[in-house]
Amino acid sequence: MRIGLFTDCYYPQVNGVVTSVMLLKEALQELGHTVFVVTVKTPNYDASGEKDVIRVPSVPFAKWKEFRVGIPSFFHHSFYQLQALNLDIIHTHTEFSLGILGRFFAKALRLPLVHTYHTMYEDYTHYVSNVGQPMVKSLMQKSSKFYVQGYDTVIVPSKKTRDALRSYGVNNYIEVLPTGIDVKQFERLPKSDKIIQDLADKYGYTPEHKILLSLGRISQEKSIDFLIEAMPHLINFDPDLRLLIVGDGPFKAELEKMVENLNLTDYVRFTGRIPFCDVIHYYSLADFFINASQTETQGLTIFEAMAARLPVIVYDDDNIADVVIDNYSGRLFSDLEGYIKAILESTISPERTLEMAQNAKDIIDTLSKEAFGQHMVAIYQRLILQKKDTAEEIDWMFLE
After folding, report:
1. Does 267 share its domain with 285?
2. Pairing between strand 153-156 and 174-176?
3. Interacting residues of 28 by C-beta distance below 8 A, sequence separation 6+
4. Which of 65, 119, 246, 380 has the fewest C-beta atoms lying within 10 Å of its C-beta?
5. Are residues 214 and 91 part of one domain?
6. Of residues 56 and 114, which shows the higher confidence score?
7. Are residues 326 and 234 both part of a single domain?
C-alpha cells in the first residue's frame, strides 16, 4: 500500500502525537508499505535529509506558539504534488490545517479516509478562554462531532476517548487501538552505567536518593503542580525522596516559582527539553515514574516507563484501564492521601515493587510496535476493499 499520514505535529516537535505518527510510519515501513508524511515546515529546522516527508509553509497556532498550522493559500500548490504520490489511503492525525487538506484530497480522489482522534480538546479549553468554560467546552465537543463526520473510520487510543466521542453524539465506526511501543528502545540501563552516573552527578543525586520522575510536556492540564505540592508531605516521611521534572512547556516558569516559594529547590529539579534519544537515560536514572494528569487520552510515557521496567505510580484514569492494574502492574491513586500512600508503600517494599514492574513489562509487550502496525494494516485493507466495493456498486447503477 501507499499510505499518506497528514499531521500538524511532527519532528522536531516532541509530544505524544509526534511519537505516535513516527512510530506508525516505522511500523508500516517495516511491513513493506510505502508511507508519506505530510506536515508543516518548522523554522530553523533542516529537513533536507528527510525521506518521504512533504512539508507545507506554516504559521504559529494562536496561544500554543510551539504548535504550527499550514497556510491554506499554499494548499493548492501541494495538491498536485500529493496527487502524484498515487496514494491508496489517507490517514489524518489532526483536526486542523493538514487534517483539512487530507480530507479534501481524499474526497477529491475518492480515497478511503481514516482519522486518529488523539486529543481531548475539552480538557484544553483554558488555552482558549479563562471565562465561559462550560460554553467553550460545549463548543469543543460539537466541533469534534462535526469534524469527524465523513470519515470512514475513527481510531482512538483508549476506551476513555471512545466513550467521550460517543457522548458527543459521534456515530462513526470507532476502532480502539492503543499506540504501540517500540519496546527495544526502552531497555533500561543499570545505574552503574557511566551515562547514568554522569546524570546523577549533574543533578546532585546520591545512591541513597529515591528519584520520582515526571516526564512530558509541562502544561497546566498535566497536574505537575500536584506532584510538587505533595513533596513537603513526602519528605517529612522520607527526606531522601527527590522529584525530577523532565520536559518543557508553557507552565514551566510558574512551576519553578512554586518550587522556590515552597523552599523545595534542593528536592525538585527541572531538566528542560531533552532529545528523544535521551529519554531512556532518564527512565534508567529514576526509581519511580509518576503521573497525576487527568487529561491523557492514552499516556504514552506511562507505557514507555513500563517498557523500561520502571515502577509506575499514576492517577487512576480510564485511559490506562487494563494496563496499569493497582497492586499488580503499578500503583494507582485518586487523591493526595492515596498518592503519598502509594509512594511510601512502594519505597518500603522494593521486592514487591520490582515484581509489579515485571508484570507491567509483560503487559506492554502485548502492545508492541509490530502488533500496532499489523492492526493498522488490517484496518486500511478493510477500508480500501469497502471503498472499492462501493465504487463498483455505483458503476453498476449508472450502467443500469
Report:
1. yes
2. parallel
3. 3, 35, 373, 376, 377
4. 65
5. no
6. 114
7. yes
How many angstroms separate the CA atoms of 328 and 90, rounded? 40
Boundaries of domain holding 230: 183-367
Helix, strand, coil shares of the chain, percent, nearest 5, are: 50, 20, 30
**What is the CB neighbour count within 10 angstroms for residue 32?**
8
Instruction: Read off the pLDDT band of 281 (50, 70, 90).
Output: very high
Q: What is the CA radius of gyration of the chain?
A: 22
In the predicted structure, residue 132 carries a pLDDT above the cut 80: no
What's the CA gap between 379 and 372, in Å, rounded? 11
Strand order across the beta sheet in which 331-333 lies: 268-272, 241-246, 210-215, 288-291, 312-315, 331-333
- Name the band, by pLDDT with cuts 50, 70 and 90, for residue 80: confident
Give the amino acid at 353: T
For 70, residues 6+ apart whose C-beta sits below 8 A from its C-beta are 8, 40, 56, 57, 58, 97, 98, 101
Cell triple for 128: 482558549
**Parallel/antiparallel/unpaired status of strands 312-315 and 241-246:** unpaired
Q: Is the pLDDT of residue 354 over 60?
A: yes
Q: Helix (H) and strand (E) counts for the chain?
A: 13, 15
223 and 124 in one domain?
no
Q: Is the distance from CB of 212 to CB of 244 less than 8 angstroms?
A: yes
Distance (Å, rounded) from C-alpha 84 to C-alpha 106? 13
Whether 30 and 159 map to the same domain: the answer is: yes
Q: Are residues 187 and 153 in the same domain?
A: no
Q: Could you give the C-alpha distances from 139 to 10, 95, 129, 145, 177, in angstroms and in order?
A: 27, 14, 12, 10, 26
Q: Over the stretch 167-216, which tens digit does the pLDDT of each residue have?
A: 999 999 999 998 888 998 999 999 999 999 999 999 999 999 999 999 99
pLDDT digits (tens, 9 = 90+) for 181-192: 899 899 999 999
Dist CA 313 CA 333 (whole Å): 8
